[in-house]
Design a protein that fits this description.
Chains A, B: Pfam families: BAR_3_WASP_bdg, PX, SH3_1. Chains A, B: This is Sorting nexin. The structure is a homodimer of 604-residue chains. Chain A is of the alpha+beta class. The first copy, chain A, contains 18 helices and 11 strands. The longest helix of chain A is centred in the last third of the chain and has 60 residues. Chain A starts with a strand and ends in a 5-residue tail after the last helix.
């Protein structure tokens, strides 16, 4: 079968590079997917064949496509075999804790028979009151990844991202690949990179939502929310109180807000220099003692946090691994900036920042100490839905299930709407970035050149006394050339931060379908409690306990949402101010330059 | 034979209009040229057939193409039959004054046998020292017309011109067609509209260079410069003195510079209302008495001026006849503005403004008076090269032919270089216009919408106390929508005038190949004088006379160039000042709007 693809952006072939010029909207046929380096070979409707950047095209849906080079496709076939297409309920199946997805138990089913698969929308799972939301997320996840594509790498300032700056075939950085290899071998990524089946994630196409949650979320795979709802174990670990604040339920905030500085990236090596890596210096404001961490340490922390808190708190992904940048320095700078953003967000979170594992990360002393802490953290049993067992609403009345459900629906609607809004802004910002760094400055440059050219023609006239005009015209021309440069550099000064903030929020919001899914599933279970009692599956007192626990879960979610809102207001206020301030400076500077150019012409 | 055409601009078909979307650079096949209304039917490479605007395509060279509707194709076949392809010399053939092109006389030939046709470049005629430049211009003229296409209608603000605003099929304005009919029937255009042969001028595709000089230039068709160089007649008509000024030879400038105001267009009708037309009010600053003129009167004036002064003074074309605008009012406004520009330029010229025919135009009293003056002007015999017989260099020494030639070469080089520079600026300005009125404001609008959308999502959060943020965000969004509108409207405030001025200069510069051609031909004749004397064709005293007259011609040309330069310096100084002033205001206003938007966010 032929693999067709749609061209997303115009791409102009460089002569002699065996490339193929394509235009936005064109349909091409993939003739070779295993070129690598972010390229595929394709044929256009005129039969011309050549290389096209992978990121410039979108393979038509439902057609298999594997990236030749950088992509880490997710093998969905593995999950498909475990999960019916219409999976809609979850089962209490504590006996099979290692099964990634628990099969449907008829006894727990409450869904209507016409309820169909939710297709590709990560949010669609909640559209028709599907009960087993979180298991439907398996199917939904790829789309979350897919939509992340347009706005993750495509817009930022580095050598990767901007189409004009796209690196040619073979421009991969082997050194960095090595670090990925390193990461890969230590992490749990093997299966996600193996298959060709339903691969949709493409090279450089990762969003920052929970893209690998499907096989990195043991908390989910071990159990449904029933594990907590019906748990008889006493809570282990530190208590997480939820208080009644001005805006509703809130987490306990520390008096002193933790922060840290990620800085000073240094190249290290191991295995007698065969493997090299970058270490970042992380300095917490509490101790002011710097600790060094490699990306893979951050990644380990991310996995622990996801395991432990993911059911209650959205844990945004780390900045993409798979960034292929031509310029090492820019890549490191960009990654550091994003690790800083991630760490700041984690520090700001009262639950995460005070957690043992996070403190361990910030207080790394030596390899031995680290390994001990690591082992301990990996053995933590209060993970997945069990985190809710540590939550203690203080002075807050138990909520009715109907209210719990309403709150959950409200958060779902909001995060979903915000997700749309943020993605929309990212798409537009991305296009604006391209215009500001591509055609627009080129045009100003050409205007500048045209003025200067006219000036030199005028100079050749042999007519006396026009030096004032020609000097002024040259100066105006140079001004437009300067403006061209300003225009091209401006996005780094303002749009960059707006995009980064929205990208962070896209990552955060991408976690909500999973988090909210856990709550949805719990609510469904509680609503089924009467039937379960009638069927003798649970006792009446267990039913009361389930309802109380759903209430506790809701307080946790409310506290988390209030935390999210207060951060959101702070972040958007700050970034919009910064954006507008820089925009004002930009336009003022242009006006000032033009005023100067204007003054050089004779007043008549 | 299939007629292929290149697509010059992207065109997006409107649904249901039987239109065909085409992309810049695409090759299409014309399937029906007689659609009319500025449209042709064409087929693309995928076999799809539909209507495409004529102005968006360029028919591949050497293929016949006739516009179906508005075009007034020039029948070159008529001239071809009179003129050998390699026509390179002109003949003194006073006995055949009515022959449009005089055949080559071997006795006057001085060209090398390998000198080939100059093809399509109006300037190419001077590249290889062709002697009979002016007759080669016959071949060159169509290109002059052709190159005018891109920048005449394509950029200005009205309903015509901007590709986005292109009218659909059948949107012709019959009323205006009627006026053209009227003009056609009374003017000398019949032959230029008859044929299908070498038609290159297309609907709406006229530049403002001397596009119809070939059959509107009896001064050229009656004779070569020999008519003047060897003339024994005494000069008729008013003398045109050339003085020695600070910058070299100059025309005699009047103490008071004439100007006039073109205003108050009014619809009139004749033939019991069957034919309608627009009358413009022309008010000279001298008399302050308004006179009314229809476009056809302007056109008559243009023809008279071209006849009389065209050999010595570039007479720019009137604004295009063939503008098809959807909006009558905008069309009339645009034409008026351009007629004003043309009249101002004519008024500023000391020779033209003081001429009898120009004064007749400005002092129109009644139909009878006008007709008498018209007849007189049409009988004027001091036309074509004979205008030089009225020129009297005052106190200026006779110039050697070598110096005459050097001056002529210098002017040729300059006007040619400026023509390139001006066309370059027009092309860039055209693109900038399209960007500023098309994609750029759309992008700002989308940014504005995205901010507002995010604001309304935030409002739906249910979280208390974020009204300041959401209000500020809405306000920022609206600001970007306002900026979008400012961006879209700005070109009318600044780029428009820059474009108009350059368009005027393109028109003027397009006349120079003809004007300089006359001088080149005269120089060649003078350089052949020795041979002619030796062959007994002219007497030695005739040779001396020829040289003196070439010197007079050169003074006329120098005076004209100095006039051109002084006007150019004035015009460009003024238009650049205006442009930059408006640009400064534009950027300042944007900065101010953004400053206001910025101030609405909370300072933290």
């Amino acid at each position: 079968m032929e693999t067709k693809a749609q061209v997303l952006y115009d791409f102009t072939a460089e002569p002699g590079n065996n490339e193929l010029s394509v235009r936005e909207g064109e349909t091409i046929t993939i003739t070779n997917q295993s070129i690598g380096g972010g390229w595929v070979e394709a044929k256009n409707s005129r039969g011309e064949v050549g290389l096209v950047p992978e990121d410039y095209i979108e393979v038509n849906q439902a057609q298999p496509f594997t990236s030749g080079g950088n992509a880490a496709p997710i093998d969905l076939s593995f999950f498909d075999s475990h999960m019916p297409a219409q999976a809609s309920t979850a089962q209490v199946d504590v006996a099979q804790p290692e099964t990634p997805v628990t099969p449907v138990s008829p006894g727990f089913s409450s869904t209507s028979p016409d309820e169909t698969s939710n297709g590709n929308d990560p949010w669609a799972v909640f559209d028709n009151n599907a009960s087993g939301g979180f298991s439907n997320n398996w199917a939904a996840q790829p789309e979350g990844t897919e939509t992340g594509k347009n706005s993750s790498n495509a817009w930022h300032s580095g050598g990767h991202g901007h189409p004009q700056a796209y690196q040619g075939p073979g421009a991969e950085d082997d050194e960095w690949d090595e670090e990925w290899d390193d990461v890969k071998s230590s992490g749990g990524y093997a299966e996600s990179e193996a298959g060709e089946g339903g691969a949709i994630t493409r090279g450089g196409a990762h969003g920052s939502s929970m893209k690998i949650a499907l096989n990195k979320f043991p908390g989910f795979s071990k159990s449904g929310p029933e594990l907590y709802l019906l748990s008889k174990q006493p809570a282990k670990g530190n208590k997480l109180p939820v208080y009644s604040g001005d805006v509703g339920p809130v987490w306990a905030y520390p008096d002193y807000q933790l922060d840290c500085v990620v800085a000073d990236p240094k190249k290290g090596s191991k295995m007698y220099g065969l493997k090299s890596y970058i270490e970042y210096q992380v300095t917490p404001t509490t101790t002011n003692k710097p600790v060094n961490h490699r990306y893979k340490h951050f990644d380990w922390l991310y996995e622990r946090l996801l395991d432990k808190f993911g059911s209650a708190i959205p844990i945004p992904c780390l900045p993409d691994k798979q960034v292929t940048g031509r310029f090492e320095e820019e890549f490191i700078k960009m990654r550091m900036e994003r690790l800083q953003g991630w760490m700041t967000r984690m520090c700001r979170h009262p639950v995460i920042s005070s957690s043992e594992v996070f403190q361990l990360f910030l207080s790394y002393k030596d390899e031995k100490d680290w390994k001990t802490g690591k082992r301990k953290a990996e053995k933590d049993e209060t993970v997945g839905v069990m985190i809710f067992s540590t939550i203690e609403p203080e002075g807050l009345p138990d909520m009715e299930i109907i209210e719990v459900e309403q709150k959950c629906e409200q958060f779902n609607r909001f995060t979903r709407a915000m997700d749309d809004g943020v993605k929309d802004l990212l798409t537009i910002g991305n296009e604006h970035w391209k215009r500001c760094t591509g055609p627009l400055p080129k045009e100003y440059q050409r205007i500048g050149k045209a003025f200067q050219n006219l000036s030199s023609v005028f100079t050749s006239s042999g007519y006396e006394g026009e030096a004032t005009l020609t000097d002024a015209l040259t100066s105006a021309g140079k001004t437009y050339e300067e403006i061209a440069q300003m225009v091209a550099e401006q996005p780094k000064k303002d749009l960059h931060f707006l995009m980064e903030t929205n990208n962070e929020y896209k990552g955060l919001l991408g976690c909500f379908p999973d988090t909210i899914g856990v709550h949805k599933a719990a609510i469904e279970k509680v609503k089924e409690a009467d039937k379960l009692v009638a069927a003798g599956k649970i006792t009446p007192s267990e039913k009361v306990g389930m309802s109380k626990r759903a209430s506790t879960m809701s307080y946790a979610l409310q506290a988390e949402m209030n935390h999210f809102h207060s951060n959101r207001i702070y972040d958007y206020n700050r970034v919009m101010q910064q954006y507008l301030e820089q925009q004002v400076k930009f336009y003022e500077m242009i006006a000032e330059k033009l005023r100067l150019a204007h003054s050089q012409f004779t007043t008549m």
